[in-house]
Design goal:
This protein is α/β, with parallel strands linked by helices. It folds into 2 domains: about 10-175, Peroxisomal Thiolase, Chain A, domain 1; about 180-325, Peroxisomal Thiolase, Chain A, domain 1. The chain is built from 10 helices and 13 strands. A hairpin with a 3-residue loop joins strand 12 and strand 13 (about 320-325). It is globular and about 65 Å long. The structure holds acetyl coenzyme *A (ACO). Acetyl coenzyme *A binds near residues 158, 227, 261 and 315.
Length: about 325
């Protein structure tokens, strides 16, 4: 018996999709008591995309996945696994991953959704990485897709200016070369009250409440403080787990919730903002869509090159937080 060869999962291709319709800060000034100046200076957001009527999370996921499969040179039926991060599934069941699987002609492979709010894609990546490392899957599709604007109250200025719709995807392949070095996933349900949507199935749809089903409730400034501290900690933990240092990281690809949170994480990593992928100005917070959208944009623009080391991280409702350190 020879030494067992370590298997890594490697990103073979990336893809993303943004709905056509753009909503600018000026458009929102007409709906709520806000200003472009307030939104841009507090969050970094200048515009976001919004899904068309009838266009669903599954549609966005399908377009992003198709592009990622094309970039990887992989056909739908070759997939062993689909993991899809979303908080805004098309319907309660089947999962959006199952709906996507059928559209891709990947029928028969494992397919399921992961709900970790804004950390959904990085969670999904962590799950798929375990399947590939253990030899259970050779080709896996990982998607982050959301239509968050469907659950916003466009009368609530404190949340409706923050979110947008979009999707991103990666195809993972088993490889003897890294690949993903480590993924770290965490949650603390004790923070539920700071960021949640109260509408439920088992807890009741509450159709009698005003705006039932269309609201994100968030204590923004409290979320902000915990996010900055928590992301600091996970940066340390991730580097340590991989035996690496700040200077080994070529690009930070963060969840795009707030430019000030991103800048804080970059400072912690001693990375100049030129080494951080920022899309929040154009995309807003697309929840699970944000990290794979930023990754795909960075790959397609030629910024991120093969062989470089990337740190992906996210923070969201739950609270959940997660990271991945990988060689692209
Ligand atoms: N336009 C103008 N004024 C506004 C707006 C708006 N759109 N929204 C709130 N304000 C007002 C508030 O009413 C408040 O007014 P007051 O002082 O008279 O009471 C004032 O602005 C300050 O409000 P804060 O909430 O303290 O503002 P802050 O600087 O914290 O910025 C923000 C708010 C942008 C939400 C920030 O706290 C943030 O980004 N938090 C983190 C969000 C996040 O990371 N979420 C996690 C991911 S999301 C997910 O998982 C689904």
């Amino acid at each position: 018996m020879g030494d067992r060869v370590l298997i890594y999962s490697r990103i073979a291709g990336t893809g993303s999709y943004l709905p056509e319709k753009v909503v600018t800060n000026a458009d929102l000034e007409k709906l709520v008591d806000t200003t472009d100046e307030w939104i841009a200076s507090r969050t970094g957001i200048r515009q976001r995309h919004m899904a068309a009527e009838g266009e669903t999370t599954g549609d966005l996921a399908f377009y992003a996945a198709t592009r990622a499969l094309e970039a990887a040179g992989v056909k739908g039926p070759e997939l062993d696994l689909i993991v899809l991060g979303t908080t805004t599934p098309d319907i309660i069941f089947p999962s959006t991953a199952c709906l996507l699987q059928h559209r891709l002609g990947a029928n028969g492979c494992a397919a399921f959704d992961v709900n970790a709010a804004c950390s959904g894609f990085v969670y999904a990546l962590g799950v798929a990485d375990q399947f590939v490392r253990s030899g259970q899957a050779k080709k896996a599709l990982v998607v982050g897709a959301e239509t968050l604007t469907r659950m916003l109250d466009f009368g609530d200025r404190s949340t409706c200016v923050l979110f947008g719709d979009g999707a991103g995807a990666v195809v993972l392949e088993a490889s003897e070369e890294p690949g993903i070095f480590t993924t770290r996933l965490h949650a603390d349900g004790g923070y539920k009250h700071l960021l949640y949507n109260p509408v439920g199935v088992s807890a009741g749809f509450r159709p009698d409440e005003p705006n039932a089903g269309v609201r994100v409730l968030m204590t923004g400034n409290e979320v902000f403080k915990v996010a900055v501290k928590t992301l600091d900690r996970i940066v340390d933990e991730t580097l340590q787990a991989a035996g690496m240092q700040e200077s080994d990281v070529d690009w930070l690809i963060p969840h795009q919730a707030n430019l000030r949170i991103i800048e804080a994480t970059a400072r912690r990593l001693k990375l100049s903002m030129e080494r951080v992928i920022v899309t929040i100005d154009r995309h807003g917070n697309t929840s699970s869509g944000s990290v794979p959208l930023a990754l795909d944009e960075a790959v397609r623009s030629g910024k991120v090159q093969r062989g470089q080391t990337l740190l992906l991280e996210a923070f969201g409702g739950g609270f959940t937080w997660a990271s991945a350190l990988l060689r692209y």
